[in-house]
Write a sequence for this structure.
């Protein structure tokens, strides 16, 4: 009979060890879930940055005269400028660029936390292109534009503290 009581105690210890191992596994799974969620958010923000950069590049392609006159150059977000250019109201390339800057700035601030951007198009002198004479055709432009977008995102647990905001930078050289 003493052997039977001893056996009952071993079974209880086995169950306690199994529950302990299971609890450790659940804690690890919870940590992985948090890390996956943060990584997913970081991937989402980087996708938004790519979307925003392409959006501004498309706006610039539609207004090449404004680009080569330097109307898109500067820091973003901008808060001033007219947004009344539409098909009913005729606008020159500078007014279209001013509208694009305001509209894109709204997208930038609504999609990315703590975002800023700069755009600088250079090299128009090298090509010797005067866009005023050829409004309907794409210019033979020899320059390029440098776009930089910065934003903040929470750390994902690799080196920085989990709650710290980490500055991120997207740089792109393009020729619209």
């Amino acid at each position: 009979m003493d052997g039977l009581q001893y056996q009952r105690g071993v079974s209880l210890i086995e169950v306690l060890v199994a529950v302990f191992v299971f609890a450790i596994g659940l804690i690890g799974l919870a940590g992985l879930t948090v890390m996956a969620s943060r990584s997913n958010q970081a991937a989402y923000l980087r996708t938004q940055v790519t979307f925003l950069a392409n959006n501004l590049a498309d706006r610039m392609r539609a207004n090449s005269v404004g680009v080569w006159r330097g109307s898109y150059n500067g820091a973003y977000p901008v808060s001033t400028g007219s947004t009344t250019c539409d098909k009913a109201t005729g606008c020159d390339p500078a007014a279209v660029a001013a509208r694009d800057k305001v509209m894109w700035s709204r997208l930038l601030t609504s999609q990315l936390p703590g975002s800023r951007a700069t755009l600088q198009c250079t090299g128009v002198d090298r090509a010797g292109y005067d866009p005023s004479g050829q409004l309907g055709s794409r210019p033979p432009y020899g320059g390029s534009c440098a776009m930089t977008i910065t934003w903040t995102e929470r750390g994902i647990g690799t080196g920085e503290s989990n709650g710290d905001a980490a500055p991120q930078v997207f740089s792109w050289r393009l020729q619209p």
